[in-house]
Amino acid sequence: MPSKRPPSPPIEPMAEEKPKAAERIRRTARELFYREGIRAIGVEEIVTRAGVTKPSLYRSYASKDELAAEYLRDYEVGFWAAFNAGADIHPDDARAQLMAYFEGLSQRASQAGYRGCGLTNAVVEYPGDDHPARKVAEENKRKLRARLVELSTAMGAKHPALLADGLLLLLEGTYASGQLFGAHGPAGSLVKIANQLIDASLA
């Protein structure tokens, strides 16, 4: 008589995988660095908030400076996604592409808790040109300026570089003033001012 096979153990539902330490560190650093500033946040606070140990942080990042640079690389990915989103909606209209970003920025910069552009903030925090975080931010701003020249050229501006610089100054001014004035600040006028500047450049 064949022996009975022992019953199979019940199949338990798989528990949701806990984020790895490096990912928790990365997410926590992004939140804290953006809200409080990079210099204001120490490694101890990051690992405590992330629920990891210091060795875990240093296994993933050589230093806090490198973690700050990685935060800005992540931030830059999100920035370009937002900046270029209008191209999918308005593929043949450079002005509409740009204004889609300006409209979104105007709304974000008018909300409570807005902290401006993380890349711009890093440049202010690190005036020297040798910090890894500043290098990421500087490269982004150079690319942004060049992109604005491309868009200004596509719009038919008589002096594309001049219009691009004017638009860049509007952007940077919005990043800063949004932190000061909130809902009733100049960020609410961003779209109107940008359109007037573009109209003047085409006349």
Automatic annotation (TrEMBL):
<feature type="compositionally biased region" description="Pro residues">
    <location>
        <begin position="1"/>
        <end position="12"/>
    </location>
</feature>
<protein>
    <submittedName>
        <fullName>TetR family transcriptional regulator</fullName>
    </submittedName>
</protein>
<feature type="domain" description="HTH tetR-type">
    <location>
        <begin position="19"/>
        <end position="79"/>
    </location>
</feature>
<keyword id="KW-0238">DNA-binding</keyword>
<keyword id="KW-0805">Transcription regulation</keyword>
<feature type="region of interest" description="Disordered">
    <location>
        <begin position="1"/>
        <end position="22"/>
    </location>
</feature>
<dbReference type="InterPro" id="IPR009057">
    <property type="entry name" value="Homeodomain-like_sf"/>
</dbReference>
<dbReference type="InterPro" id="IPR036271">
    <property type="entry name" value="Tet_transcr_reg_TetR-rel_C_sf"/>
</dbReference>
<dbReference type="Pfam" id="PF00440">
    <property type="entry name" value="TetR_N"/>
</dbReference>
<feature type="DNA-binding region" description="H-T-H motif">
    <location>
        <begin position="42"/>
        <end position="61"/>
    </location>
</feature>
<keyword id="KW-0804">Transcription</keyword>
<dbReference type="InterPro" id="IPR001647">
    <property type="entry name" value="HTH_TetR"/>
</dbReference>
